[in-house]
Target: YceI family protein
Amino acid sequence: MNLTKKLSVVFLGAVLSISAISCKKEVKKEVPAKFSIESKTITVNWTGYKTTDKVAVHGVFQEITLGNVKNDTTAVGALDGTTFDIPVSSLFSKDSIRDSKLKTLFFGVMDATVSLTGTLNLKQDGTGNVDLKMNGVQHKVPVTYTSSGQLVELEGSLNLEDFKAQSALESISKACFDLHKGPDGVSKTWSEVGISAAIYLKKE
Model:
């Protein structure tokens, strides 16, 4: 092999080596997306019931403060273990008279219930619980959820008796006696309260 051919082979080998190195550099590992939660992207709803026909009364809590916030590769993982603090003063039902009664004659009768506090615990199978503290009582409220992309929607139902809140229930029932009468003339305030939340998570 003459010198020219040798140089050509060496040059070709060098080009191939550089190309291989360049290709390796271009291969990048795919980084999983991270989900995170912010209080401003959460809507917390409540539903009370009145009359023997169980007429629903809807409302929201307009403020929520979060704790133990973390990032995770799934929306459910980011939510699991999150703590919350919801001031009862942020209660809103589009009826100022009703809101005032609920704040003073319902939550105001409870033991040290300026806020509703707790922890959100979610499993991967669409179930979980809200470990809620109200009226000085800690109790786990079962919930179900659906997760679609960045949106997680939770739903559950609590019984006020589980929180020893019979006095608060009697107080609001008495204050709204006539308003909670149905066509049968019976006044009834249910101990069941529906809860739900829509949570839109950030994705990075």
The CA atoms of residues 49 and 56 lie 5 Å apart. The chain has four helices and twelve strands.
